[in-house]
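Quick board copy: two proteins, each given as sequence then tokens.
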Amino acid sequence: MANVKVVTDSASDLPEGLAREYGIEVVPLTIRFGDEEFTDREDLSPEEFWDRCRDSPTLPETAAPSPGRFQDAYQRARAAGHDGVVTLTISSALSATHGSATIAAEAVAGELEVRVVDTRNVAMGQGLIALEVAERARTGAGLDELVALAHDAMTRAGVVATLATLDHLLRGGRVGGAKALIGQVLSIKPLLALRDGVVAEAGRARTRAKALAACAERARAAAPLARLALIQGACGEDDVAAMRALVADIAVTHPMLEADIGPVVGTHAGPGIIGLTWLRA
């Protein structure tokens, strides 16, 4: 039986307890607010990130982990007796993290076999893929089987979310000012999804309630599901409760998870983002 360690990065938004339960090491990205630099979820929690966003006149910036952070994770895995590592990264179209993980894998090539997989995903879309692979790794599966499972899970993954505000998109230069202003005047709530590893608009709703219902309908259309997660960032409890109710009847193998959206998505999405991620059965 193989003894493979699963590594991912903090863009996955994996809750700490789940990562610990499944034996997944999470390599953190870096967040900068002006001259201040923080390590994601080590010295800046999602709650603290959102608090700082509210008080900051400029948007924060995120940076990929250094290759050294991944190399340290690989060497810890080797020291703990693992005979291989599968690293599951945020989409390479969104971050340089995949490149850092690959450089680190090359650096330890003579000591430990490391396979780096670009999940073409982010947030708990990435996180659910990591959970799927880690669960199989606990059965003694080898590197080839785990990499194949990761690629299969990627074909079954879905992400959809809606924003409460267009302010962060506007401030981040992601949309033209006129388009954002029109959206605010008409109270349009955009839906976002991932296409080919890139965040793309997936529709619009006139009200928050309709946007939540549209997210739930997308997940329902993909059912039956193996895994489902409710994701949110600085979102009101009423919206979270409404989303829970909307997805309560969706057929899913594992209990639904809930996770806080952190800086990687939150920087551009803004407070109040809420959505769903899933893996089809």
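And the next:
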Amino acid sequence: MKVAFQGERGAYSETAVFQFFSAEAQSVPCQEFRDVFENVAKQETAYGVVPMENSIEGSVNQNYDLFLKYDLKVCGEVIVKIEHCLIANPGTAIADIKAVYSHPQALAQCRRFLEELGRELIPTYDTAGSVKMLKEKGLRDAAAVASERAAKIYNMQILAEDMADNPENYTRFFVLAKQDSAATGKDKTSIIFGAAHAPGSLYHALGEFAKRGINLTKIESRPTKQTPWEYNFYLDFDGHRTEERCAEALKALKKYAAFIKVLGSYPKAK
């Protein structure tokens, strides 16, 4: 089973692949998030895994926007505990380090530690990719922020562990496919909708879920990027789209929405 993810071997996204499917899955590294969507859309891989939000730094907005461009479904979610390490080539001491490389979100999640370290911070496209780069270039005056697994894969040295500002650091990933999942009784549904341009449209739209006792677990607005100050809303709620009350809410939502796109229903992550 081929599963696409963004980043290099050892990335947290690859950990999400193995955590959701099993260690037997064939993970396929991709340079960009768009490439993950493309792989699944073209059926080059059966599934893709992309990060959607972090418990410290919030949403990965690019991936929410990509759902508007691709006709893919969410068939699962997985939550990964993020445990950052400071990683360098063997023989490198912290005193030798002049710069620290990593993905911008990883650098932000370790802000306090890195501010105290006082080195130059250099954003890259991937956590594990930063470790790979240090290895390939043989840099002895730099380090990377990435996972313990990345350090093992590239035979690198761990200089510090548990670097995140908040130890309760988790990232939620969506599993992409051509179809979503059948109802299990413990499901969530994700949708995108644009509120109609009328007074109270968003209030009434959300009220359709409230009056049916449907719990909303997330709501976020994103610019449409078409007209200034117009927004789309990304909504997660408990229940499967085929459940009667959920189906009724989605039908009633059409009265107050300029458009609705159901991203899919899927089992809740453990």
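Board note added afterward: The chain has three domains: 2-81+169-177, 85-160, 187-267.
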